[in-house]
Design a protein that fits this description.
Elements: H1 3-6, E1 28-30, E2 39-40, E3 43-44, E4 46-50, E5 60-63, E6 76-78, H2 85-97, H3 104-116, E7 123-125, E8 130-132, E9 145-146, H4 151-155, H5 157-160, H6 177-189, E10 194-198, H7 201-213, E11 220-225, E12 239-243, E13 248-249, H8 252-264, E14 271-275, H9 283-298, E15 312-317, H10 321-327, E16 332-333, E17 358-362, E18 378-380, E19 385-387, E20 393-394, E21 399-400, E22 409-411, E23 416-418, E24 423-425, E25 430-432, E26 462-463
Parallel strand pairs: 10-11, 10-14, 11-12, 14-15
Antiparallel strand pairs: 1-4, 1-26, 2-3, 4-5, 5-6, 7-8, 7-9, 12-13, 15-17, 16-17, 18-19, 20-21, 22-23, 24-25
The structure holds S-adenosyl-L-homocysteine and zinc ion (4 copies).
The site of one zinc ion has 8 residues, from loops.
Length: 464
């Protein structure tokens, strides 16, 4: 109860970061969202298929869209399973009971009362991750709590709340200040005035506090996130409890309408969506939700904008490039490396910086995205975009080909640039790491039948 409940949520998520080889072997594939899917506390479930090695076709089942860890949500139902009326009723009750103990409205009221308290009476329970009003102190006496919560602390909830990073199902990796500032400057320089922050609480928070300081550079942000703890700090116009894997607004029609209005204000001009989803795959589910948000924006019929898309920044690891482009062909991957505070491996340090694999994908013209020259990015006049310092323009490919920031080399046999550590293997007939085991590709992919990849990497399916 309390903390666990408030913090409920998460996402189909890998532990830590994964490469394209990542989860692979799992043999679990996502089928497209289906109307009439049964619901768990996290909204409509997604339809998956389990593909066992050697088996012709796996059995399909519904599972929670948001939680990969069964401990967080154990919803499961075979697609062809008959569910009795009694079980349906029990499930509905279960879903109702597994909503947060306070509504958003209630939390807004609590906040109003909280800020009226003198500093000495402002407590935050670290165990329940909850602002406490004096009448509630007693219930939390044996919990760890913080005292004297300042206005500044209330304005940076992402610092006050602990990041939900250890949970398998939630991956809260917060932007390093440098990257967050870069994003906000970029947004302002591009002339945007409204930001739909989808899973970017720290960016939202930076916009909120900047806005209250500088009236003339007013940028507004609406945060959509599954982490309900944030409803303690923001009004219903600033935060919607939202699941980005099934486009589900927990607050119902009113919340959806808040989002729609936000997008469509000023005929939908000057609005940009920024999202930094958990990296555990399910690109297909994310893409489907983002397309629905884009469609919401498009509803504002404005002349001469028929083919335009809502501007978007999708922050995701570079090895998902082909998957993202599959769903959003208009997107380009930027070279900018996004850094995080609480991810030791990819944290930016003054010395010995580890490269972050996380990039910005956008449907804005790449030439508009100015990357900081101080950090070594330079403009390639041929490609008409900013690239990493190590990213050399290849004459043969006629583009700056590096994906990871290192200098790549051209292989004439593969007719493309490859990672510096790779060499051309004659038995595989492609470039690979020197110590790779040559692959016998006589058998095609189990899913699509094509050669060159295994089932676990089949581009026609999403993988968890
Ligand atoms: N770098 C961002 C945070 C990204 S971490 C920042 O600093 O602002 C991923 C975010 O997505 C977290 O805030 C997490 O709560 C949210 N999230 C995880 N699963 C989600 C889901 N199913 N729907 C909506 N948001 C989700
Ligand atoms: Zn669930
Ligand atoms: Zn170039
Ligand atoms: Zn090349
Ligand atoms: Zn080669």
């Amino acid at each position: 109860e309390g903390g666990g409940n408030m913090a409920a949520g998460g996402a189909a998520q890998l532990e830590g970061w994964c490469g394209p080889e990542g989860p692979g072997a799992g043999g679990l594939a996502l089928l497209s969202a289906v109307p009439g899917a049964p619901s768990c506390p996290h909204g409509p479930a997604l339809l998956f298929v389990k593909t066992n090695q050697g088996e012709e076709e796996g059995r399909r089942f519904y599972a929670c869209s948001a939680c990969r860890d069964r401990k967080d949500c154990n919803f499961f139902q075979w697609e062809d399973e008959k569910v009795s009326e009694t079980r349906l009723a029990a499930r509905e009750e279960y879903n109702r009971n597994h909503q947060p103990s306070f509504t958003h409205r209630h939390n807004v009221e609590r906040y109003k009362n909280f800020v009226l308290l003198p500093l000495s009476k402002r407590r935050f329970c670290q165990e329940c991750q909850q602002l406490l009003l004096p009448a509630e102190w007693e219930k939390h006496l044996d919990h760890q709590f913080l005292c004297g919560i300042s206005t500044a602390q209330l304005k940076s909830p992402s610092q006050l709340l602990y990041p939900l990073e250890n949970k398998k199902t939630n991956a809260q990796f917060l932007f390093a200040d440098r990257s967050c500032q870069f994003l906000l400057d970029l947004i302002i320089d591009l002339g945007f005035r409204r930001v739909l922050s989808v899973g970017t609480p720290r960016l939202h928070e930076m916009i909120q506090s900047k806005t209250s300081q500088e009236e003339n550079s007013r940028v507004r942000s609406l945060l959509l996130d599954i982490d309900f703890r944030y409803s303690q700090f923001y009004t219903e116009d600033e935060f919607c409890h939202y699941n980005m894997f099934n486009h589900y607004f927990f607050g119902g029609e009113a919340a959806r309408e808040t989002c729609r209005k936000f997008l469509c204000q000023d005929s939908g001009q000057k609005v940009v969506m920024v999202t930094d989803p958990p990296f555990g795959g399910l690109v297909e589910a994310l893409a489907s939700s983002f397309k629905k948000l884009m469609a919401m924006w498009k509803e504002t019929e404005k002349e001469g904008r028929n083919n335009e898309e809502m501007p978007m920044f999708w922050i995701f690891p570079y090895f998902f490039e082909s998957r993202i482009l599959e769903f959003f062909p208009s997107f380009t991957m930027m070279d900018y490396q996004v850094d995080y505070d609480n991810h030791a491996l990819y944290k930016h340090g003054k010395t010995g910086r580890r490269q972050s694999p996380v990039r910005i994908f956008t449907n804005l013209p790449p030439s508009m995205i100015v990357l900081p020259v101080e950090e070594g990015y330079r403009f390639c006049p041929i490609c008409q975009r900013y690239v990493s310092s190590g990213n050399q323009h290849c004459e043969i490919c006629d583009s700056c080909t590096s994906k990871d920031g290192r200098r790549w080399k051209h292989c004439v046999l593969c007719k493309k640039c490859v990672k510096p550590s790779w060499f051309h293997c004659n038995s595989c007939n492609c470039c690979a790491l020197p110590n790779h085991t040559c692959e016998k590709t006589d058998a095609g992919c189990f899913v699509c039948g094509k050669a060159g990849h295994k089932r676990s990497a089949c581009p026609s399916l999403s993988h968890t």
